[in-house]
Amino acid sequence: MRVLSGRHDNIAQTLHSQQHAVHKRLREAEQRLKQERIAELTEAGVLPFPAASDDSRRVARAWLGRYRSDEKEELVRELAARAGVAASAAAPVRRIQDKITRCIDNGWLIAPVNDAVRKVLELDSPAFQQRLLTDAAQQENATM
Q1: For 10-39, what is each residue's pLDDT tens digit?
Q2: Overall domain count for the chain
Q3: Residue of 90, 57, 50 whose CA lies nearest to 74
């Protein structure tokens, strides 16, 4: 680095090196934090799409689920049985209402279940989604 006088300034060079090192460490920390957060969310099952992977077993399971769903469901049942997980907890669920019901039945979701809740869970998918949107809009309006 050169200063206005045209001479090489050691202090400026040192400051530039330090700034570069700080930025490099910051980028590394941000990348690590991002990777850890993605791993946590993936493990929790809240990411809609898992991160890309070069793990051949994971890729094979994804292909199995996409193209051979019956075989995947059988594999899941076998793995669950070996792990001691109840068959009802390992069965595939296609609708969010069924997922909520399963969570309540298995004690994973502790919430009061009354007739109003049962009626909402019995709705078909479009009606259920509309009900959720209406409820969310009402809650948003109530907080404003």
Answers
A1: 888 888 899 999 999 999 999 999 888 878
A2: 3
A3: 90
